[in-house]
Each structure stands twice: as structure tokens, then as C-alpha cells.
Amino acid sequence: MQELTESDYDILHAMENIVDGIAAMWGEHTEVALHCLDKNNPSIMKIANGHITGREVGAPITNFALVKLNEGKDVSDAYITKCPDGKTLRSISTIIRNKNNKAIGMLCVNSNLDAPFQSMMQNLLPNIHSHFDHGVTAETFARNNDEMMHSSIENVREQVTNDSTIPLSKKSREIVTRLNDLGIFGLKDSAQIAAKGLDISIHTIYRYLREIRAHAEVV
Q: What residue stretches are annotated with the YheO-like domain (predicted)?
């Protein structure tokens, strides 16, 4: 370890929201700790769900984390550890380096394997049905832009078609509006693909877009 510079700390501070992001993704049974590797005070500078190990900001780096640091692998293999209170954790550690390739920090993720299964699943799938009931578009993991556009068009069309509060005469315009909000029409050939997928003319697509954008400018 070495004494860290101001730019090293800037890198570590920039990663603090990643701690919160991982914790939000995996829920209360996963602890995420960002360690500072300053030789003067190697310690936790950001932690989420510290109730799992009982640690807080300022707690020292663990001896096992130091072992992982010296293994020479930037991303460790998953390993099993035990808390003082007996909880079994599945852990992984990632080394953070500066522009000179010097290790300046570690991001450690510890999942509590002893947590009740139902509670773990509730954390992973919070209110999933209510989200879709309110018309949120499912994220599309497409392999190319065409596939993404076709999938987005189909998802939005299904939502609008099944929404009885939207008059039949306004459904096409509502679909185009939602696709525009998703940024679809910023992609190449999107208007042509949307026209074909919605079985309306491309001129109708362009007319809707002009109206939508004119309204946005007025607002």
C-alpha cells in the first residue's frame, strides 16, 4: 500500500454511488463496502447494508481482504467467509486502480447466504407486478438496433392496445408519443420500421412527430 493522492481519492469518491447501486440491486441481504487503501489508514470509506457484518465507515480493512489484494487478481474468485455472529457470506472483491495501475481501493460485496429465502426473493423482485401494471416498458436486451426497435414497438403497442382509457382513434398517436419519449426516433430508419410495425403510413408518423414536437416547444 501507498499514501494516496488527491486524484486517487477523487477516483474513490466517484465510485461511492456504485456502492449504493449494487446494494439497491441486490437488497438488504448484500453488504457492499468501498475500502480505501491509503497506507496511513486503510479503512472503509463507504458501506451499504453494514448491519450484515456490523461494520461502519472507518472500520479497518479485513485480513482476508488483504490476502485477496496480494493474490494479484483484480477480480477475485467468489469465496465463503463467516461473520463473528455465525452468518455465512459469499464474497467477492474487486481491486480499484489509478491511472498508474496502483491499487488504491477495493470494492467488496458480501451476500448473506443464511438470509431467509422468501426475504431474499422479495428483495430481488420488489413490486414487480405493480410496476408492469402501471405501464412501465420492459427493458429490451437486444442484439442490434433493429431488434431493439421491433421489441420496443411491440411492447408499447401492447400497452396502449390494452389500455381501455385511450380512445381507439388516438391509440396510434399515443404509441408514437411513447416511442418518441423512449428516444426511438433518434435511431436510423426508425420511422420506417415504426410505420411498418404499426401498419400506418410513414407520413402519419412524421405528422404525429411534428405535432408532438410543436406541443413540446409551446410547453
A: 12-118
94 and 80 in a single domain? The answer is yes
By CB neighbour count within 10 A (0-12 exposed, 13-18 middle, 19+ buried), where does 112 fall?
buried
Residues present in the chain in total:
219
> Position of cell 461511492?
16
Whether residue 82 contacts residue 94, with contact meaning beta carbons closer than 8 Å, is answered with no
What is d(CA 43, CA 58) in angstroms, rounded to the nearest whole number?
Answer: 5
pLDDT in tens, 142-175: 456 667 777 788 888 888 888 889 998 898 999 9
Which of 108, 96, 106, 187 lies closest to 140 in space, CA to CA? Answer: 187
Q: Which of 131, 127, 94 lies closest to 18 in space, CA to CA?
A: 94
pLDDT digits (tens, 9 = 90+) for 32-48: 999 999 988 888 999 99
Residue 175 belongs to what domain range? 128-218
Q: Whole-angstrom Cα distance, residue 147 to residue 126?
A: 28
Angstrom CA distances, 81 to 30, 48, 78, 112, 187, stand at 13, 18, 10, 10, 48
Could you tell me if residue 180 is inside a domain? yes
Which residue's C-alpha cell is 422468501?
Answer: 118
Structural contact between residues 48 and 19, judged by C-beta atoms closer than 8 angstroms: yes
SS3 2: strand
Distance between CA atoms of residues 177 and 7, nearest Å? 44
Residues 66 and 30 in one domain: yes
SS3 of the chain: helix, strand, coil, percent, to 5 = 45, 20, 35
